[in-house]
Specification:
Blueprint: H1 10-25, E1 28-29, E2 34-35, E3 44-50, H2 56-69, E4 73-74, E5 89-94, H3 97-105, E6 111-112, H4 113-117, E7 118-122, H5 124-133, H6 147-159, H7 163-169, H8 174-177, E8 178-183, E9 190-193, H9 201-210, E10 213-218, E11 242-245, H10 256-264, H11 271-284, E12 288-290, H12 296-301, E13 304-308, E14 323-327, E15 332-340, E16 346-352, E17 361-364
Parallel strand pairs: 3-10, 3-11, 4-5, 5-6, 5-9, 9-10, 12-17, 13-17
Antiparallel strand pairs: 1-2, 7-8, 13-16, 14-15, 15-16
Length: 371
């Protein structure tokens, strides 16, 4: 079955076009699927900024597919063959392996920043196997490895494009074929960095030394790294260098929780005004129920629950887009949504995944109910 065509929202489409123009200036034409030499001395740093659920990861994945289709080689960090003069390169990075694994689960070959800053030094004998697996060399004859072991390595690499994994499938240990690590000497072309809100200035400078074209993807609602004075690395970019994704896509359209989440993220709206907005929407939409106190029966039968939480003063807005959550006691799946305002107020929500209606929303003002 063919996957449905992806449709961008207006802000995603604008960000994609702006990034495509930046890549074109760097010699990568996404529209025509063609490459030209990298212009000398040209550098560019852009940021795609949006809260959780705004579509940053989806946009990154689409850019990866378009760059790969244009002929750009993806550098994984596991093994890097001899650099061809005409080759254009791409690396997709994250500060931690956990963050990189989220992208890998979506089919995006991400690696950590460390694995790009430092490259493995292979034993020359086993590097012949790596070159063969990568398609740049002939099948080798290696002392101590049988043809059956080489076949296992080849079969593994066809399923998972990992040189260390393939060599392990042949019966080798990492210490057998990786003799050390060295700082990357040659630059790459394009770097896409997810979870860039975790970066500090030193990491950003390291990345700028390697990538003439660097795109940061980050959430302004995350906490800034320690020692950054409350700033994230993309905060210092000029407005023209930041592409803002405004709309949260993790909930369906015409959804009360989505509309309230957007309202709660508006710094101009005080908490009392927010409560008045909830009351107003409750009068206009029977899916939203306002209660002066927590009513257990109402909450128990509502697939969507929203309640007020106490947040420390000065907290940034949290994940208003929502994250998957398992209600162990009830044995139900759903999503928890929460946000904190700088004035100390907040709102959290539980949306059950099993209710076929999925249509009611309950608001309580007392001590919070936590799923």
């Amino acid at each position: 079955m063919q996957a449905p065509a992806l449709t961008f929202s207006d802000d995603q489409a604008e960000a994609y076009d702006r990034l495509a123009a930046a890549f074109l200036g760097a010699g990568v034409d996404l529209a025509e699927g063609s490459l030209t030499p990298m212009p000398e001395g040209r550098t560019s740093v852009l940021a795609v900024v949006g809260k959780a659920g705004s579509g940053k990861t989806m946009l990154l994945a689409e850019l990866y597919r378009a760059l790969k289709a244009s002929g750009v080689d993806v550098i994984s960090g596991d093994y890097e063959g001899r650099r061809r003069k005409d080759r254009r390169t791409l690396a997709i990075l994250a500060p931690t392996n956990k963050a990189a694994s989220v992208l890998r689960l979506r089919g995006v070959p991400a690696t950590t920043i460390h694995r790009i800053l430092y490259t493995p030094v292979y034993d020359p004998e086993y590097e012949k196997i790596a070159e063969w697996l990568a398609g740049t060399g002939t099948r080798p004859s290696v002392e101590g490895l049988t043809d059956v072991a080489l076949d296992r390595a080849h079969a593994f690499y066809r399923q998972v494009a990992s040189i260390p994994g393939a060599l392990a499938a042949a019966g080798l240990k990492g210490s057998d074929f990786i003799k050390g690590w060295k700082r990357r000497e040659e630059p790459l072309d394009v770097g896409l960095v997810d979870e860039s809100s975790m970066l500090d200035e030193r990491q950003l400078e390291d990345l700028r030394e390697i990538f003439p074209t660097l795109v940061l993807f980050g959430d302004p609602a995350q906490l800034a790294p320690v020692g950054q004075s409350g700033e994230m690395v993309f905060d210092r970019l000029s407005a023209g260098r930041k592409l803002i994704l405004h709309r949260i896509h993790r909930q369906a359209e015409d959804n009360p929780i989505l509309d309230l989440a957007h309202a709660l993220g508006d710094d101009r709206l005080g908490f009392e005004e927010f409560e008045a907005l909830v009351q107003e929407q409750a009068r206009a939409d029977d899916r939203l129920v306002w209660a002066e106190r927590v009513e257990a029966r109402l909450m128990a039968r509502s697939p969507v629950l929203v309640w007020r939480t106490a947040c420390g003063r000065g907290r940034r807005a949290a994940d208003i887009g929502g994250v998957d959550h398992q209600d162990r006691k009830a044995g139900r799946r759903g999503a928890v949504h929460s946000a904190c305002r700088a004035d100390g107020g907040g709102v959290s929500a539980w949306r059950g995944g099993d209710d076929p209606q999925g249509a009611r929303l309950a608001m309580g003002r007392g001590a919070g109910l936590r799923a």
